């Protein structure tokens, strides 16, 4: 393949072509002031993205990470990640690659699928990516990464963005250097997830470092990490001056978060209203996968799984939680402690509310079954009420007896 890079010695110097810089400006205008749905392994399926767009018609969204090599070989699963919902106005495709030629071919496939930009994954910490020298492993060799991005950006028609973590470990934080090289390489934007590869979700995102990167770069910087409420989003934006924000796990817990941020208020949906929201994503899965037995089998790889996050929803009024959120991210606060802070005894809540909050995985399949089969929101709510009367107490007792910690965060890797 033709080389788009000059020969270089120890120090790499490169000037991105004018057409690459023009795409950067165009993408800046598209994303400025926006909140973006993160690329989420499993969680970023098309029906869920469609649900999120219902709460913000202009929401920029991103696909699940696709492995470029399998994608260009025609792998059915990887190709499916490029499908775009009818209401996705601005859709980015994320790929994992460590090769210019593969990245160029993957970008062509993304463009043909209707993508607005292509993103190179340099943040995924899972072994399946890092063992191949992709994902967050690319942060180990910043100059090599920059050369790859420069080669892809110069050869494709889409803007090329990069999503990174702050480094491999706390001892090897190198995000400022990586961003400086990517700016030189012609990246259209960089998303900075404020944790290292080793930290995964165990520590709070480092928004102070994100702010430093924004101040030192002329690139559009997208800040990512620990946003669960509209007031946390406002605080992060004000403190960092990021071009845009990216939300992942917060959207999995409450897909209506995008409307809350856009309107600057908490929506506080009731249990019955949330049944309607969850039934909507079930209906989108029927449309996408099919409403027969085979379609249900494919949809149920996703639908019950989503309740590991939906069940974590709690009202978080600013008057009770704003100051706490500035000390520690609310997404890392245990749900039972959050309830206690506003004087809420979960045992006294209505059965339907308790069912929707049940963190026992055994409850999530039966809930999904009712949402799938019900002909209306009212019917779904009635059947869920009956389910709660019959089985909720047992599920709650099982959960109390279990020593299993909440591993939902580790189930949804942001690419």
TrEMBL record:
Biased composition (Basic and acidic residues): 406-415
Enzyme class: oxidoreductase
Superkingdom, natural source: Eukaryota
DUS-like FMN-binding domain ranges (all copies): 37-293
A Pfam family assignment: Dus
Reaction(s) the record says it catalyses: 5,6-dihydrouridine(47) in tRNA + NADP(+) = uridine(47) in tRNA + NADPH + H(+); a 5,6-dihydrouridine in mRNA + NADP(+) = a uridine in mRNA + NADPH + H(+); 5,6-dihydrouridine(47) in tRNA + NAD(+) = uridine(47) in tRNA + NADH + H(+); a 5,6-dihydrouridine in mRNA + NAD(+) = a uridine in mRNA + NADH + H(+)
Region (Disordered): 395-415
Signal sequence bounds: none
SUPFAM superfamilies, per the entry: FMN-linked oxidoreductases
EC assignment: 1.3.1.89
Keywords of this entry: Flavoprotein, FMN, NADP, Oxidoreductase, tRNA processing
Cofactor: FMN
UniProt keyword tRNA processing present: yes
Family statement: Belongs to the Dus family. Dus3 subfamily.
Cross-referenced PANTHER family: TRNA-DIHYDROURIDINE(47) SYNTHASE [NAD(P)(+)]-LIKE
Protein name from the UniProt record: tRNA-dihydrouridine(47) synthase [NAD(P)(+)]
Lineage: Eukaryota, Viridiplantae, Chlorophyta, core chlorophytes, Chlorophyceae
């Amino acid at each position: 393949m033709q080389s788009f890079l000059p020969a270089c010695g120890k120090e790499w110097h490169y000037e991105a072509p004018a057409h690459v810089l023009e795409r950067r400006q165009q993408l800046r205008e598209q994303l400025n002031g926006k909140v973006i749905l993160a690329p989420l392994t499993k969680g970023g399926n098309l029906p869920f993205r469609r649900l999120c767009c219902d709460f913000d018609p202009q929401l920029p969204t991103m696909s699940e990470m696709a492995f470029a090599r399998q994608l260009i070989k025609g792998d059915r699963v990887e190709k499916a990640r490029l499908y775009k919902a009818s209401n996705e106005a601005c859709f980015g495709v994320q790929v994992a690659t460590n090769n210019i030629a593969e990245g160029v071919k993957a970008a062509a496939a993304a463009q043909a699928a209707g993508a607005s930009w292509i993103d190179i994954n340099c943040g995924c910490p899972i072994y399946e990516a890092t063992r191949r020298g992709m994902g967050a492993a690319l942060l180990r060799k910043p100059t090599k990464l920059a050369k790859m991005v420069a080669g892809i950006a110069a050869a494709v028609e889409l803007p090329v963005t990069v999503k990174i973590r702050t480094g491999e470990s706390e001892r090897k934080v190198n995000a400022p250097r990586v961003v400086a090289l990517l700016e030189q390489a012609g990246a259209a934007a960089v998303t900075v997830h404020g944790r290292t590869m080793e930290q995964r979700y165990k520590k709070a995102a480092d928004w102070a470092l994100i702010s430093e990167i924004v101040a030192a770069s002329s690139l559009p910087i997208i800040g990512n990490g620990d946003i669960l409420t509209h007031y946390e989003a406002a605080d992060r934006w004000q403190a960092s001056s990021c071009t845009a924000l990216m939300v992942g796990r917060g959207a999995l817990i409450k897909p209506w978060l995008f409307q809350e941020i856009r309107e600057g208020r908490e929506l506080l949906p009731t249990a019955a209203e949330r049944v309607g929201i969850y039934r909507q994503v079930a209906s989108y899965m029927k449309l996408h996968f099919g409403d027969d037995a085979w379609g249900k089998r494919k949809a149920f790889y996703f639908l019950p799984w989503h309740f590991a996050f939906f069940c974590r929803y709690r009202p978080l009024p600013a008057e009770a939680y704003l100051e706490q959120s500035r000390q520690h991210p609310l997404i890392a606060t245990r749900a039972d402690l959050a309830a206690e802070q506003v004087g809420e005894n979960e045992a006294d809540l209505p059965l339907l509310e308790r069912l929707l909050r049940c963190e026992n995985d055994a409850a999530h399949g039966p809930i999904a079954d009712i949402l799938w089969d019900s002909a209306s929101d009212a019917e779904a709510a009635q059947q869920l009420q009956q389910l709660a009367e019959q089985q909720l107490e047992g599920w709650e007792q099982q959960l109390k007896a279990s020593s299993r910690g909440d591993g939902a965060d580790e189930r949804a890797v942001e690419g």
